[in-house]
Design brief:
mainly alpha, two-stranded antiparallel sheet, 6 helices, about 65% helix, globular
Length: about 160
């Protein structure tokens, strides 16, 4: 299996596992936070879902975002996450973003896989790292959901 195919598989499986485990978050816990400044399960899920589309654009454009004003960019990102107010909107964004990732990965030529993308901010990212980032990102944020579940005393292990 080549890197494009394995990256596609990781993106899909990352989404599926995330959505499966997120389905166990009770409705009355979707917006619960352990502290006033913490993110809720829904906010973490919205962030994870929306980044699928962002990763797709980076892969498709073969460039990293270089915001002129980082504060404004982060505020816009936060507003988009907050605008997702229910499980269905989050899942729709996740599925649409993952489909965009698959399309972007399919659009890569062999020479694109060897690119290194410059952030314009003193760091770079190999395209090969960006290609696996969608699946990895979902896994990382799933850990946050798992932690929140332990905070409300859900000790169940969800494996299937």
């Amino acid at each position: 299996m080549d890197l494009i195919d394995s990256s596609k598989q990781r993106a899909v499986s990352g989404m599926e596992i995330f959505l499966r485990n997120f389905s166990y978050v009770p409705d009355d816990r979707l917006t619960w936070t352990p502290t006033p400044t913490s993110k809720s399960a829904l906010r973490i899920a919205a962030h994870t879902a929306l980044y699928m589309g962002r990763f797709a654009r980076m892969i498709q454009d073969r460039r990293l975002p270089v915001p002129e004003n980082l504060g404004e960019w982060l505020a816009e990102r936060d507003a988009e996450e907050i605008a997702i107010t229910n499980r269905e909107e989050m899942e729709r964004a996740f599925r649409e973003g993952t489909a965009q990732v698959l399309e972007a990965l399919d659009g890569l030529a062999p020479e694109d896989v060897e690119l290194t993308l410059d952030s314009g901010q003193g760091w770079s990212m190999p395209m090969q790292q960006l290609m696996v980032l969608p699946g990895w990102h979902a896994t990382v944020h799933l850990g946050q959901i798992d932690y929140l579940q332990t905070c409300w005393d859900d000790q169940q292990v969800y494996v299937g």
